[in-house]
Amino acid sequence: MASDRHGLILEKMRRAIQRTGRFAARKWLLNRPFSKTATSRLLLVTIDERIPQSQIYPFHFYADALRRQYGTEIREVSIEEYERGNSPAPRDATTVCFQTQFHTPRDELIAIVERLKQQNPEARIVYLDWFAPTDLRLADALDPHIAIYVKKHVLRDRSLYGKPTLGDTNLVDHFSKKFGIAEETRLFPIPPGFLDKLHIGPSFVTADFMLHRFLGTSPVVGEKPIDVHARLGVKGTPWYQAMRTECVDALGTIADLNVATGGNLGHVAYLQELQASKVCFSPFGYGEVCWRDYEAIMSGSVLLKPDMSHIETDPDIFVPGKTYVPLRWDLADFEEKVRELVGMPSLREEIANNAFTALHDYVTSERFVTQMRPLIA
User: Fold this and answer.
1) Which residues of 192-214 are buried (b: 16+ CB within 10 A; e: fewer)?
2) Nearest-CA neighbor of 97 among 45, 31, 30?
3) Whether the predicted pLDDT of 20 surpasses 50
4) Looking at residues 72-95, what average pLDDT do you find?
5) Is 308 helix (H, G, I), strand (E, B) or coil?
6) What gap in Å lies between CA 269 and CA 163, rounded to an integer?
7) 65, 111, 192, 372: least buried by Cβ within 10 Å?
8) Beta-strand runs (E) in the chain
9) For the purposes of burial, counting CB atoms within 10 Å of the CB of 368, is it exposed (0-12), middle (13-18) or buried (19 or more)?
10) Using CA atoms, how far apart are residues 238 and 184, in angstroms rounded to an integer?
11) Among the listed ranges 10-14, 54-58, 187-191, 329-333, which one has the minimum average pLDDT value?
């Protein structure tokens, strides 16, 4: 029965992953005007790509609950078509949430906001930051124009914002210093009062294929022949490559265990492999929070990751020893933690189930709806 259920889950994932668009109703939603009776009108101006759409999908998934609680109607238009003017967006929204590309120039960013305001003069303007790093590089540009800035994960110590770093993120700063890599000093100004606009939204748990999986039951632990899942990409910028190379080198301390390493797999095969893994080693990417963190929990694998105590996200899956197992940033305790987890099935099961339950409770309780209340109500 468990095998049949997992097969059905993977087939649903396969269908979601292979869809060419994010939503079946996308074209229908694009140009449809708001109804005259709607008291709360939410316009989403979005990027139709996998990572940014993980921020958008829950608005559609919980549309009925948003309508029930706040009387909200939802429309969506892609930022590309909005900028080109090919497809005029519905007007007179009461809230406009918008995304932009990572490298959108400041003048283009301001032009987008001004056009949104012109077409929706009474709207609360909200920026949805889907970027991997924890920095607030757009704060200075956006502060005069927005009411709320939503980010998936932030530095727990807000006083660190507005201070200079080597490179443009806290991770670049740390690993450049560690490995002696030259980087220019950067500083992103934080206007007075901007941090009061900062609002934490959910991370990858709300991606289409993932949210549906967390509606179900916790994966049966069962037989997991792979001890450690560690398919790690290494190529990237100098600091990233040095950081990831150190992670790959750490795997040499557990060479006697069954470790899944090497190049990329297709997404479905990758998830199948995770389901067969006791432990998932998930180092940092260009930001601390990664797809792999949530994919590991979704698959019933224990998340092993560099210490995340400096990060705040909601829902929180980074509770040490309860929902994940933290590592020192220098990986000095990597072998010790891996061997402890591999040798203690009951501990693995407890941590894996705790993590899954945290995300299951989040998606089934419709907490996203209350989490988004400051944007809409």
Assistant:
1) eebbebbbbbbbbbbbbbbbbbb
2) 45
3) no
4) 84
5) coil
6) 42
7) 192
8) 40-46, 72-78, 95-98, 124-129, 148-151, 153-155, 165-166, 185-186, 198-200, 226-229, 259-260, 277-281, 302-306, 311-313, 325-327
9) buried
10) 13
11) 10-14
Judge contact between 122 and 44, C-beta under 8 A: no
**109's tokens:** 């960013």
Report the share of the chain in percent with pLDDT over 90.
Answer: 82
Alpha-carbon gap, residue 158 to 249, rounded angstroms: 33
Structure tokens at 347: 């501990």
Lowest mean pLDDT among 74-88, 93-107, 227-241, 344-358: 74-88
Q: What is the DSSP letter of 263?
A: S
pLDDT bin (cut points 50, 70, 90) of residue 26 is low
Whether the CA torsion 139, 141, 146, 149 is positive or negative: it is negative
The answer to whether residues 280 and 224 touch, using CB atoms and an 8 Å cutoff, is no
What is the rounded average pLDDT of the residues 257-267? 90
Could you tell me if 152 and 171 are in contact, meaning their C-beta atoms sit under 8 angstroms apart?
no
Pull the structure tokens for residue 315.
């829902």
Rounded to whole angstroms, the Cα distance separating 310 from 321 reads 16
User: For residues 259 and 281, is the Cβ–Cβ distance under 8 A?
Assistant: no
Kindly report the CA angle at 377 between 71 and 314, in degrees rounded to 5?
A: 110
Q: Show the tokens assigned to 357.
A: 């339950």
